[in-house]
Amino acid sequence: MSAPLLITMGDACGIGPEIIARLWSAPQPPDDACVIGDVGVMRRAIRQLGLSLPLALLDHPDEPAPPHCLPLWQPPDLPEHLADCPQGQVDARAGAAAARCIEAAVREVQAGKGRAIVTAPIHKEALHAAGLPYPGHTEMLQALAARPGEPLPPVRMMLANEELRTVLVTIHLSLRRAIEAISLEAVLETLRITDAALRRFGIPAPRIAVAGLNPHAGEGGLFGDEEIRFIAPAVQQAQSEGMTASGPFAPDTIFMRARRGEFDAVVAMVHDHGLIPVKYLGVEQGVNVTLGLPFVRTSPDHGTAFDIAGQGLADASSLRAALQMARRLSGD
Q: What is the pTM for the complete model shown?
């Protein structure tokens, strides 16, 4: 049997445990995945949903699980009494546990005991409360993927659904800092990562559109000159390297053209430019994919949803889509 897909539990105070339990209560539950998380938290989620779902506690994540059970491997260093953390609130213990599960998943994938990672949502404030320095999943996974003494691998966030793929040049930065971080090198590196990833995903000659930063892509410098100084030269360099890249285009219209099939992906300069169009189409099928890592990582297109945690209202559709995407990208 091939190594399993590893699903990290996410923040114990959010909806991650709940949507994982819903995934295994479906008529066709996953038979190629293992949850990395806390036994007490998962039992609480199962109980709150009123499910009759046995939980199989495994000694290691690639151990075969009994049929019709939710397979769970609990890392040895999780904080105690996590199920006592109040749901819907920031808790340092939950942040620490979420980080430990991610770290364990990366170790297992690097050791060949998992073939991809699917991460349930974490809460950035809880991470910070636990003393973790990362702004989010992407930066944490980037640090964990780096070999000792080597620079961090360049990574990018891609949000995708059946209609649109968007890749970001900058992610979790203030808008002012994000604009300052845009350079010819950053845009070109994004194009290289995007082109290589789409080829691995089975698109032999990816058509990549590049969205501008300013209104109307700067209108020839009238509304800003980042397009002239950085973005257009990066597109030209990418073309000289054999990539089918074009732009920069006005960011208020290029996503419509991509959705209609003119492009395979859009590269956007800043977080909200790229993510609003995909999320508007529906978070239920949206999947976050981290490009540039030495392993496959996907996640749902939503957060911890503290406002509904523990109420039985969370929808597992995006987690299911993330699992399907991880399965496809890891070769199965």
A: 0.88
